[in-house]
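Hey, I'm writing a tutorial for new members on how sequence and structure tokens pair up, and I'd like a real worked example in the thread rather than a made-up one. If someone can provide the structure for the chain below, I'll link this post from the tutorial.
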Amino acid sequence: MSKRCEVCGKGPLFGNRVSHANNRTSRRFNPNIQVVRALISGRAQRIRVCTRCLKAGKVVKVA
């Protein structure tokens, strides 16, 4: 499953894990993706959406 929002296109970001000894190894910040049944062009469809888009009301959920 891809870690990408189908509404805004937000995907994973990359950074470093920093230990107490200041050793750095790469890590990945994944967006909070939820599978939601939404109205798309008049019919219900399952899409992967980040929680920021859900909270902002960019997606109309099906009851």
